Amino acid sequence: MQDSYGRDINYLRISITDRCNLRCVYCMPEEGVAPISHTEILSYEEILRLVGIFSTLGIKHIRLTGGEPLVRKGVENLISDIKKIPGIETVSITTNGILIPEKIEALLAAGLDAVNISLDTLNPKRFENITRREGFEKVIEAIKLCEGSGIKTKVNCVAMKGVNEDELASIAGLAEDLNIAVRFIEYMPVGKNDFEKCVRKEDILKSLTSVYGPLYKLDKNFGNGPADYYKPEGFVGAIGIISAMTCNFCENCNRIRLTAEGFLKLCLQYDKGITLRDMMRDGATDEELAQEIEKAVKDKPKQHIFNDYQEHEGIEEKNMSRIGG
Ligand code: SAM
Ligand code: SF4
Questions:
Q1: Which of 75, 80, 160, 302 has the most C-beta neighbours closer than 10 Å?
Q2: How far is the CA of 135 from the centre of ligand 2 (A)?
Q3: For residue 25, what is the DSSP state?
Q4: What is the pLDDT of residues 216-260, one digit of tens each?
């Protein structure tokens, strides 16, 4: 499936729940988030039907996200059912890792291909301040278990001024002995207007090189997504940087997003898209849904411009937990 800028859209991120067992400060308010009712959320049957349609349109890679995808019951069955859909080559998840220790065997048995685990600090007290919950040890255990199992493992760290910018090099150090990619994500003001928190790519690189020396840039094709990858001397793993704020990687964007409520979202920054859930529940056929999806994808915005937050209409106002990251 190509959009109107000739980009090949082959990657779909599906948020399977808006619920979460953490409350990260940059993603969700501590209180007052009313969970979306179960009837409004896509059932697994509906998700499978849509993935079947998306696969006929050229989607090959599926990532399950949330909220926290592992809090939804039966996620391992969903993974193994998606893996059976012809045309789907990989299924991965983005998780906070808390439930990995108890679910890893079921996830591997389901055929999960890759895991991204979010971790913003190596300091347990700071972990509690950022996530407003306990669970640091579980996340560390999750990273080691995943790496040890041989599944492709990445750690996602949101770099934030005044929060964790002083420990980016130590966090990157996780990749010194473990065969993982530690990726730093520039903080994005999705749904908000707070740019000051963002640590820019050049500053992230500066703090890494001050500790590890020169970083060797890896081939563009190392990952499947928007990160640039580097390898310091002697590292088993790699370091990635996702510079959503300062560099524009949109010309190679291959992704679309499906929210837990079945809204097909075309770009992280904008609220543009179509409500596939209602079309399905109103009796649309697979052919009709496929046509609407193709039409919507032609409307995918050229690029996001977070830096120009106030200048655009149709800006996304939801928290990241409602979008899936
Ligand atoms: N709960 C899972 C997790 O935390 O990995 C999946 C959902 S979470 C919304 C997906 C990713 O978005 C996480 O890696 C998280 O760190 C990132 N994220 C959330 N809010 C963000 C923000 N404002 N800027 C940059 N990344 C953000
Ligand atoms: Fe939950 Fe992930 Fe958002 Fe943290 S980033 S509150 S773990 S959805």
A1: 75
A2: 13
A3: T
A4: 899 866 666 789 999 999 999 999 999 877 766 788 889 999 999
pTM of the model: 0.94
What is the distance between the alpha carbons of residues 19 and 40, in angstroms, rounded to a whole number? 13
Ligand 2 neighbourhood includes 28 CB (under 6 angstroms): yes
Residue 2: inside a domain: no
Domain count, the chain: 1
> Can you tell me whether residue 14 is helix, strand or coil?
strand
Does ligand 2 lie within 6 Å of residue 69's CB atom?
Answer: no
Backbone phi and psi for residue 191, each to the nearest 5 degrees, phi listed first: 75, 5
Contacts of 226 (CB under 8 A, 6+ apart): 242, 244, 249, 252, 253
Report residue 309's pLDDT band, with 50, 70 and 90 as the boundaries. very low
Q: Which tokens in the block code for residue 74? A: 């039966």
Query: What does the angle CA 14 – CA 186 – CA 12 come to, to the nearest 5 degrees?
Result: 15
| Ligand 2 touching residue 68 (CB < 6 A) | yes
Q: Distance of CA 302 to CAs 78, 161, 240, Å? A: 32, 29, 24
70 CB within 6 A, ligand 2? no
Assign residue 135 the CATH number of its domain. Answer: 3.20.20.70
